[in-house]
From TrEMBL:
Residue ranges of domain Prephenate/arogenate dehydrogenase in the record: 12-272
InterPro entries: NAD(P)-bd_dom_sf, PDH_N, Prephen_DH, TYRAAT1/2, TYRAAT2_C
Source organism per UniProt: Quillaja saponaria (Soap bark tree)
PANTHER family tied to this protein: AROGENATE DEHYDROGENASE 1, CHLOROPLASTIC-LIKE, AROGENATE DEHYDROGENASE-RELATED
SUPFAM superfamilies xref list: NAD(P)-binding Rossmann-fold domains (SSF51735)
Protein name in the entry: Arogenate dehydrogenase
């Protein structure tokens, strides 16, 4: 396959589908590196895009005809299937690299493999950071990815370089392995944060460092959308098992404490 002129020069023309807060966060660094961005979204971001130097398309057809090297999918997990099915992919002028940045990986891989024609490349990725954790730069932050179907290595390498050049820790792994690990880390973190929010924990005058960490966890977790949290559970087949493990662990801890309390009570009665 011939190399697109833009990728051969080290820059890409990237079209973003879904220009919410995470896409906006990524766009700032991508633009800083000299790449050209275009975007389309259900919400009208034309004014913001104009300020950022990004072409915004309300019409998906026109967006797909704009001859991008890369189509970056940054929709919510829950809306991905509907969005992809609505795309008139026949309007693409040439083979294009499709990249998703969703927080689960098996689900978008399956949806995109079913929907995309064979001549379109697919890279499934998860930048495991966001506007808060990445506000001071991306150095040493994790970027997980799987080269699902890549023929145009030059464009794929050029896209990955966006994150590698910022100092990200690049982790190539299967979508299945990612979801297994993310269920134990990301989903579990969000679940505990939501539990702390339900308990309405807040800072006190006698906070320990450990409790301050819990308050920070609650606040950072509640800064993410409920759709993201739902998506981490609904579309990660390993999440239900981790939720059951959490419930079992709480039961075991509670059981141990009650046993200790009962033992203390018996010991006190025997002393009397």
């Amino acid at each position: 396959m011939s190399m697109p002129a833009s990728s051969s020069s080290g820059t890409l023309k990237i079209g973003i589908i879904g220009f919410g807060s995470f896409a906006q966060f990524l766009a700032k660094t991508i633009l800083k590196q000299g790449h050209t961005l275009q975007a389309t979204s259900r919400t009208d971001y034309s004014e913001l895009c104009c300020q950022m130097g990004i072409s915004f398309f309300r019409d998906t057809n026109t967006f797909l005809e704009a001859d991008n090297d890369v189509i970056l999918i940054s929709t919510s997990i829950l809306s991905l299937s509907k969005v992809i099915k609505s795309l008139p992919l026949n309007l693409l002028k040439r083979p294009t690299l499709f990249v998703d940045v969703l927080s689960v990986k098996e689900h978008p891989r399956e949806i995109l493999l079913q929907a995309l024609p064979e001549d379109l490349d697919l890279l499934c990725t998860h930048p495991m950071f966001g506007p808060e954790s990445g506000k001071d730069g991306w150095k040493d932050l994790t970027f997980a990815y799987e080269k699902v179907r890549i023929r145009d290595e030059a464009t794929c390498t050029c896209f990955l370089q966006i994150f590698e050049s910022e100092g990200c820790r690049m982790e190539e792994m299967s979508c299945e392995e990612h979801d297994k690990l993310a269920a134990k880390s990301q989903f579990l973190t969000h679940t505990i944060g939501r539990m702390l929010a339900e308990m309405e924990i807040k800072s006190t005058p006698i906070d320990t460092k450990g409790f301050k960490t819990l308050v920070q966890l609650k606040e950072s977790t509640m800064g993410t959308s409920s759709d993201l949290f739902s998506g981490l559970f609904v579309h990660n087949r390993f999440a239900k098992q981790e939720l059951e493990h959490l419930e079992h662990a709480l039961h075991k801890v509670k059981e141990t404490l009650l046993q200790k309390k009962n033992q203390e009570r018996v010991a006190t009665e025997n002393e009397q």
